[in-house]
Amino acid sequence: SGCATQETCFKPVGKRGLTPASATVNPRADGEMVTWGGMVLDTRNLETHTELEVMGYRLDGCGRPLTQGESQGRFLIRHPGYLEPLDYRPGRPVTATGRLAGVSDGWVGAATVSLPVLDEATTRLWPMPPSATEQPLPFPLRPRIHIGIGGGSGHVGGGVGVSF
Prior knowledge:
Layout: H1 20-24, E1 33-45, E2 49-57, E3 73-80, E4 93-108, E5 111-125, E6 144-152, E7 155-163
Parallel strand pairs: 3-5
Antiparallel strand pairs: 1-2, 1-4, 2-3, 4-5, 6-7
């Protein structure tokens, strides 16, 4: 028997229609528990927690962000303690569950934006999908040597072939 890896699925919590963009303009959203996911844009380690700035996307059935779709707005994840910035680097998919704790001002270029905050969030860092250049070939790339011998009517012949 062999080993197989499986992603652990989990059920997102909270209102499905509550997105980072809608939470920014809805003061009644404060205190709601939600599960949001997206792509890490920035990681900041502060004295008591780590803050992740994330571009939000819809989640699939296992809670993984669907980063090929339309974004649902930026948000902040406040995770208690330290998270390694090399692990939580820009471009990594992440999902978090936490309680909405208002909005915080952020910057995108020179523009000020309001970002909803998931406080004391638990996070799930997803593996990076392989890039197109890292896709495995459908067959092993190695030389193949073929040898053939044949005969008939008093003649004998042979051949060698090499293919990749």
